[in-house]
Design goal:
By secondary structure, the chain is α+β, with helices and mostly antiparallel strands. The protein contains 17 helices and 12 strands. It is globular.
Length: 487
């Protein structure tokens, strides 16, 4: 059996690729004894199957096979991003050492910054997530390493992070270490719902850990597909800020840990789709106006054709519900981090502009129908006694659109002012420019609800396991309480 990463697995299923043993490459890495298979697809225009490699040496051992594959996927075989910082270089975190990272109980209903904070373009963009994949030199990748080696890798990374957390101003101040082996299935799903761990890490949790920073801006997965995955998530479109934060953590960690790095191919990762910068940027959009039009489908298809992944709220394998989409880069080699960021920024800005224009057209041409849909959705949410996750997300989408277009007044139980359509548009645009604090508060509440109505959160809230009907009852109660609080 050939192991593949989530990206490749979803690509294969989406394209219906059938593999044959004709032309199969089969060799073994002398260091980790990983057996490398590379099958020829029946359709010659399709990607060949990409295995998760066994160790950093696999990149040199199977170079001949990997070069054409990497060129086809990334458009390049030369790393152009940041270079490895030598371990023990002098410039480390400065300041008085005040505390150390400890295993702390994780507050399950702490308000994550990305859910409640304000950020640029928050009317269309919910959050920006920047992730770096790194591996410790001299060790097999997670899929090939034995349990004892995985524990050693986790200890190496954890010791470095403990040292980093102890300095004044550290982004890891007051962070919690969560050992996944201590969690039950609901606890693991809870962390997935908050975008703190991946499903892949949850499924192999014996040696997995996650370090969660204050307000959940920073999280660090240990022993997922790669040894270390650094993540920063912020509200709105905050590409540069998020990158600078995660890069500074990466630099400090590199001074304490030897990364697996190649001058030609950059940071070496278990899956060749992440090699190079190891950088993945995911921007979460809410684009209800575009999603309802043919133009929106054309734009999303065009973005996908440009080499960006377009997925649902929870990444690989998830479908878009309620017009919530994640868009992320797929190329990590041959472009610098700044180039990747600027290209994502360009795509995001175009999508934001298109969505705002479609909202304007909706209000102008279909004002009464739109109002009817929004107020009906609001009415259901504040009165329903049973509601499914899918329906809740769909209704939340319409309520959010109502807030962002100015159709829903600040106090939803107040008399509706019958302004002209043009007046509504002007007011909504002004509120967006001025950063209306009331709208920001409601946007934050809606962002919280996107997570709080998920199954594991509802069960954490109730303190017990719930069947489907019980979850639908609890979900309706949470929606009523939180939305009516804004009324």
């Amino acid at each position: 059996m050939v192991r593949v990463c989530e990206d490749c697995a979803s690509l294969d299923m989406d394209q219906g690729i059938q593999y044959t043993r004709r032309g199969t490459v089969h060799r073994e890495c002398p260091q980790c004894h990983f057996e490398y298979y590379q099958s020829t697809p029946a359709n010659e225009d399709s990607y060949e199957e990409l295995p998760l490699l066994g160790c950093p040496k696999c990149y040199s051992e199977f170079r001949e096979e990997l070069v054409p594959t990497l060129r086809r996927i990334h458009g390049s075989i030369k790393h152009r991003g940041k270079v490895q910082i030598a371990k023990n270089t002098e410039r480390r975190a400065k300041g008085k050492k005040t505390h150390a990272l400890k295993s702390m109980p994780y507050a399950p209903f702490a308000k994550a910054e990305w859910m409640q904070g304000s950020g640029p373009d928050r009317d269309v963009i919910i959050s920006t997530r920047v992730r770096l994949a790194r591996n410790v030199s001299g060790h097999a990748f997670c899929g090939q390493a034995q349990e004892a080696e995985l524990k050693q890798i986790a200890a190496t990374a954890e010791n470095a992070l403990v040292d980093m957390s102890g300095y004044t101003g550290s982004p890891l101040k007051n962070a919690s270490i969560i050992r996944l082996s201590n969690l039950d299935p609901i606890g693991l799903e809870f962390l997935i719902e908050r975008h703190l761990i991946s499903r892949d890490l949850a499924e192999k949790n014996a040696s997995g850990e996650v370090i969660v920073g204050e307000k959940e801006v920073v999280s660090i997965m240990l022993n997922e597909e790669d040894h270390i995955r650094l993540q920063v998530i912020n509200p709105g479109l905050q590409l540069t800020q998020s990158w600078e934060m995660v890069s500074s953590i990466d630099d400090e960690l590199a001074r304490r840990v030897d990364y697996a790095f190649s001058n030609d191919w950059g940071y070496l990762t278990a899956c060749p789709t992440n090699v190079g910068t190891g950088l993945r940027i995911s921007v979460m959009f809410h684009i209800p106006a575009l999603a309802a039009t043919r133009e929106g489908n054309r734009i999303l298809s065009s973005i996908s054709d440009m080499g960006y992944a377009v997925r649902g709220m929870y990444g690989e394998g998830s479908q878009a519900i309620g017009a919530f989409y994640q868009i992320s880069n797929e190329t990590t080699l041959g472009q610098s981090e700044v180039e990747i960021i600027e290209r994502i920024r360009s795509v995001a800005r175009q999508l934001v502009d298109h969505e705002r224009e479609e909202r304007r057209i909706l209000v102008e041409r279909n004002g009464i129908e739109l109002e009817n849909k929004i107020f009906r959705s609001y009415g259901i949410l504040v009165n329903a006694r049973l509601i499914s996750s899918r329906e809740a997300l769909d209704l939340l989408s319409w309520v959010s659109l109502g807030v962002n277009t100015g159709i829903l007044p600040e106090k939803c139980d107040a008399p509706v002012r019958r302004d002209s359509q043009s007046t509504k548009i002007v007011k909504a645009q002004k509120a967006r420019r001025d950063g209306d604090p009331e709208k920001e508060r409601i946007r934050g509440r809606i962002a919280q609800l996107l997570v709080l109505i998920r199954p594991a959160h509802l069960q954490k809230y109730e303190g017990r396991k719930l069947d489907t009907v019980a979850r639908d009852i609890a979900r309706a109660a949470v929606m009523r309480a939180l939305i009516k609080d804004d009324a």
